[in-house]
Design a protein that fits this description.
It is built from nine helices and 15 strands. With 364 residues, it is α+β, with helices and mostly antiparallel strands. Strands 5, 6, 7, 8, 9, 10, 13, 14 and 15 form a nine-stranded mixed beta sheet that branches. Strands 2-3-1-4 form a four-stranded antiparallel beta sheet, covered by helices on one side. A two-stranded antiparallel ribbon has the order 11-12. Bound molecules: fructose -6-phosphate and magnesium ion (2 copies). One magnesium ion binds next to loops.
Length: 364
């Protein structure tokens, strides 16, 4: 049976500031998706949040880019925005960049990660959702999961994974894509995806064509042409039985790597794995957070979730993240804590340069 798993998210308003979602918003989204399930539009759903981002996790049989599903998500975000405005939540409707829906959410602001696949007899999936960072944050963990034998033992041990995987990489600046294979092209893959602000892994396939992972790749600032917040990406990964085991999918998050985002979308900081309960950026609007919800999908029903990154085995990663946060914060406004000027969302540098334009003298 072919099913589609759609994860669609938007920041429609924060409580308090950009730190979390208000329970009334989650309740309203829940109500809207429950109605859609009763109508038969959805097979199942789960509503959650990470920081100020509302997450709609949905299963259905309408395929990827379905107008009906995208419209459902859009309408839900519009209704939640109305509620957010009533409550005076911060930045209400910040990710809804366009006020009319024209068939698809592409370029409208919300982030979308969808995959259609033949459901296996047992279908474990992990849905990762991050706040205060950008889609390139998934590059390092995805590489480790699907191409690094020091992280994923199955690449060496499991004959079904031994041939490796294919990476669909998007150039979000030039709007083009390329498919490269591991292990054959690992150095080329790394040459590209190490540049996290430009090249992002969109999909990973097993060599026989089976879809294994998909990410959201919106860059809001590129859509809007001005700063409208970080993209706070999501990612879906299928696990087990010829794919990385659940523990291999989670393993990369034991290292809280540095990502772009954090305060004002303009600072590097550690990506801290945490439980849903702790997905509430606070210190310096962060540090950036990632949650991972595990589901078994059966006949398109979402059995779960389990709060995978809330597990004790990630306690040390959290401490390491907090230590790294201290270390990075000590740099104050200096690079590389603050992003380079071309990557900075809130750049006042051009204004400073302009202000002193006439005072700058040539160096002889
Ligand atoms: C980063 C983020 C926050 C805000 C910051 C300032 O993605 O959402 O760090 O950038 O709180 O917000 P404004 O400009 O709305 O006062
Ligand atoms: Mg916000
Ligand atoms: Mg956010």
């Amino acid at each position: 049976m072919k099913i589609t798993l759609s994860v669609i998210k938007a920041d429609i308003g924060g409580f308090v500031g950009h730190s979390a979602s208000h329970p009334a918003i989650l309740k309203l989204a829940e109500k809207e998706l429950a109605k859609a399930k009763r109508r038969g539009t959805l097979s199942d759903y789960h509503v959650t949040s990470v920081g100020d981002d509302l997450q709609l996790i949905m299963t259905h049989k309408k395929g990827e880019n379905s107008k009906i599903i995208h419209k459902l998500a859009y309408d839900t975000f519009v209704k939640c925005t109305k509620k957010a405005k009533e409550l005076g939540l911060y930045g209400a409707g910040q990710d809804l960049l366009k006020s009319t829906f024209s068939g698809n959410l592409k370029g409208m602001g919300p982030g979308v990660a969808e995959m259609e696949f033949e459901e296996r007899p047992s279908e474990p999936v992990i849905i990762f959702m991050a706040d205060k960072t950008e889609p390139g944050a998934w590059n390092l963990p995805l590489y480790k999961m699907f191409a690094d034998p020091f992280s994923t033992a199955g690449l060496v041990i499991d004959p079904h994974m031994h041939d490796g995987f294919k990476f669909e990489i998007h150039d979000v600046i030039k709007h083009r894509k390329i498919i490269l294979s591991s292990p054959e092209h690992i150095y080329d893959i790394l040459a590209l995806i190490g540049q996290t602000g430009r090249y992002v892994i969109k999909r990973v396939y097993r060599k026989d064509g089976l879809i294994a992972a998909v990410t959201s790749t919106t860059r809001l600032n590129l859509i809007a042409g001005k700063y409208v917040g970080k993209d706070d990406p999501v990612m879906v990964v299928r696990a087990q039985h010829g794919l990385p085991a659940v523990g291999e999918v989670l393993e990369p998050f034991s290292f809280p790597h540095l990502v772009a985002g954090w305060m004002r979308g303009s600072h590097h900081g550690p990506l801290m794995p945490c439980s849903v309960k702790d997905a509430t950026p606070a210190r310096f609007d962060g540090p950036p957070r990632v949650i991972g919800l595990g589901f078994q999908i059966k006949k398109a029903k979402l059995i779960g979730p389990r709060d995978m990154l809330g597990d004790k085995s990630f306690d040390r990663a959290r401490w390491e993240a907090l230590r790294a946060a201290d270390y990075m914060r000590k740099h104050g406004p200096f690079e590389p804590h603050r992003l380079g000027a071309d990557e900075m969302e809130y750049t006042t540098l051009p204004l400073v340069e302009k202000k002193f334009e006439s005072k700058f003298k040539p160096i002889k």
